[in-house]
Amino acid sequence: MSIAKVIEVLAEGDSIEAACQNAVSEASNTVRNIAHVYVNEIQAKVENGQISTFRVNAKVTFVVE
User: Fold this and answer.
1) Considering the domain boundaries, does residue 63 fall inside one?
2) Phi, psi (5° rounding) for residue 49?
3) For FRET with 26, which of 12, 15, 34, 50 sits at 20 to 30 Å CA-CA?
């Protein structure tokens, strides 16, 4: 039987995909066995009438050893 844990992280990037990847990449610096990422919320930062960056509020699930 395995146990999973969920942490919530905020990340940003030039696209939604990049923001999600940054969330996983940064979390993997201190967490092992990441299995899933659930994007809870997406935001876009606007500068001069253009979207400059995307932000995600994501839940990262990993298996506890």
Assistant:
1) no
2) 75, 10
3) 50
